[in-house]
Structures are given as C-alpha cells and as structure tokens.
Amino acid sequence: MTEAKSARGTQDAPGVRYGDGTRVVRAGLPDEEPYAPPMPGPVLAAHYHLPGDPSTAPYTYGRDNNPTWTGLERAIGELEAPGDETVRTTVFASGMAAISAVLLSRAKPGDVVVLPSDGYNLLVPVRERLEGWGVEVRTAPTGGDAQLEALDGASLLWIESPSNPGLDVCDIRRLADAAHERGALVAVDNTLATPLGQRPLELGADYAVASGTKALTGHGDVLLGYVACRSEELAAPVRLWRKTVGAIPGPVEAWLAHRSLATLELRTARQAAGALAVAEALRGRSEVSGVRHPGLPDDPAHETAARQMRRFGCVVSFTLPDKGFAERFLDALRLVDDATSFGGVRSTAERRGRWGGDDVPEGFVRMSVGVEDAADLVADVHAALDAAARG
C-alpha cells in the first residue's frame, strides 16, 4: 500500500527560505495523497453531516466555513506572513465586504477612525455609515504620512498605500508604530501591492486587507476579498461579521482564486516591469502631465516605496489635457480595454473622473498594465496619444 507523503507546502524547511515563485505554486495545498489531485476541486455544500457537538466540528454549515475557503485562506496567510503560524485569514465575497468587515465590526459609537482622504472612492459611503453610527471619522492624505496628525484619540487607523488612484505612498511602519503608541489598531489596504509586493503585517499592521478581484486573482473573472491578521482575537469579530451579514465567497470563486495564485509571482513581476516602461514612455510626451508610478526613481513616493515594497505594482496614473482628449486617447487604444478594474493579465485604463467620486482632473487616467509585451503597449500608447492629439 502506498503511503501519503507528509505536507511540504510553503513552510520553509530548516535552514531554507523559499522564494516567492516557489511559495506561490504550493501555498495552501493539502498533504499529498496517492492518486489525489494536487489541489482538490471546489466543495459545493450548504450543509455537512454533523453528528454530536458542533463546537468541535471543522465544518458545520455553508455560511460558516467551507474546505475550499480553508485552502485559500491558508494560502493567503502563507503569502502575507511567511512562516508565521499565528496568522488568521478570512475570505469574503468581495474586497468591499472585507473592508466593511474590519471597519464596521471594530468601530462603535464614540470611537475615532482615521481614513485616507485620497483612498478608494467607496470609502466615502463607508465613512457616512460610520458617522451615522456616532463614530468620529478623520481624514488626511496618504502622502507625507499626513495621517500622523489625526491619530490622537483614534481607535483605528486605515491606510491605503499605494493609494488608489493617485499612487501616493506612506511609511507604514512609522504610522503603525505611532498608532499603536496611542492605542489604535492599524489596517492596511494591500490591494494594489499584493502580498508579493508588500507585507503590511511584517511592517507592523494588525490587518492586511485586499480585494482579490484585482491582481491577486488577475484574470478579471472573480470577485473576492480577504482580511489577514496575526491573532484569533483580531480575526474573530471579522469572521463573525462575515457570518452575520452572509458576505461569503462562492466555493467556485474561492477555488479559482486559489488556482490563480500559482502564477501570481510571474504575473506581478511582468506587470511591474511593463508598468515602469509605460510610465517612462508617458513622461516623454508633451501632452501628458502628472505621471505617477512608485517605481520611477524621481516619483515623490519612490524613496518610501523602495524601503517597504518589493515590487511597485502594475498601475500608472497620469493626466491628459482635458476630458475630450482623454476619451479620444482611450478610444484609440487597441491593446488596452476601457474598464474600471486593475491588476488583470489584460491591460485596462479609464478616465477616473467619469465616476465622480475621486478628486482628480477631468483628464486623469488610471492605467493597469497587463502581461502583454511592454514594447507593444508602449507603441500602442504612443499611437493613441498621437490619434487623440489629431482630434
């Protein structure tokens, strides 16, 4: 009879520190069993056989837990905090479900929460909800660590670095240390960086939160979010929030997300290199102003980003002369889809002013670089700018 091999996974062997490429292809996989697939398929179950005391059961009901979630949660934990067995991850139906779970489960009337003033635009309705509950919400920009000035008396600091869509960066460790000195918890939205670009938990954050819809899964076909934290005490209210509001991911979505992790290192490395090439090309065009990408050596965020990020992400932001020019540019692109997400294998771009929720000029464009050949993308951008300039 053939015996099952013990789990190898991505936990570092004695004296060995695995690289990201090794880690991502094995993250969260179960023990090897003879003739079993390396990654089990999605478990479709609303309920489970449940004899005896449910408090000791690993799986009880489909809104509480699922083996497919377990594999993905283990994988994300291994990427967000390699080698740390205390990390606890909870996956959600979307990034906003994950964001809401932290903010709305922790804040109570009378608390003070500090949010970025230049973060993801759906933080605005979340802020309104918190204020309606009697929570004081303070805001400050990401750049220059401006949130430091708002921390006195705060119970929770929310950081988004790099910020979306402006790509400003703050010193996460500095802010986390200052917040903890004042008794506040710290959450970092790590969507744009991914765990391979930045590890907030290692920089002192209590929560690493992300939309897995973006670069983590990378194919534009899954809505997903997650919260990773270092203790069960921090994870329990987040998990209870998921159960209470039912913000659970489908098992097929969770399985697709786990499957996609195997290429995360390859995708994000290529995207970061392509984004830098596009940013450098944009800076040479007279029609373009305000080019931002943390990888540019003279970008205002570069010095801080280089200290805490391991790669600089796939997003480039820039401003064109006006709304009409930006729309002509987007229409003329052939290799870049006009879409509102980012982080996918296919390049996308959009004029952010069309949503009305970001404080940006009418000609502001956010571009997400995919895995196409960088030279092809650069040529496409140049041709589209030429076409837009002709009118």
Automatic annotation (TrEMBL):
<dbReference type="InterPro" id="IPR015424">
    <property type="entry name" value="PyrdxlP-dep_Trfase"/>
</dbReference>
<keyword id="KW-0456">Lyase</keyword>
<comment type="similarity">
    <text>Belongs to the trans-sulfuration enzymes family.</text>
</comment>
<protein>
    <submittedName>
        <fullName>Cystathionine gamma-lyase</fullName>
        <ecNumber>4.4.1.1</ecNumber>
    </submittedName>
</protein>
<dbReference type="InterPro" id="IPR015421">
    <property type="entry name" value="PyrdxlP-dep_Trfase_major"/>
</dbReference>
<dbReference type="Pfam" id="PF01053">
    <property type="entry name" value="Cys_Met_Meta_PP"/>
</dbReference>
<keyword id="KW-0663">Pyridoxal phosphate</keyword>
<dbReference type="InterPro" id="IPR000277">
    <property type="entry name" value="Cys/Met-Metab_PyrdxlP-dep_enz"/>
</dbReference>
<dbReference type="GO" id="GO:0016829">
    <property type="term" value="F:lyase activity"/>
</dbReference>
<feature type="region of interest" description="Disordered">
    <location>
        <begin position="1"/>
        <end position="21"/>
    </location>
</feature>
<dbReference type="InterPro" id="IPR015422">
    <property type="entry name" value="PyrdxlP-dep_Trfase_small"/>
</dbReference>
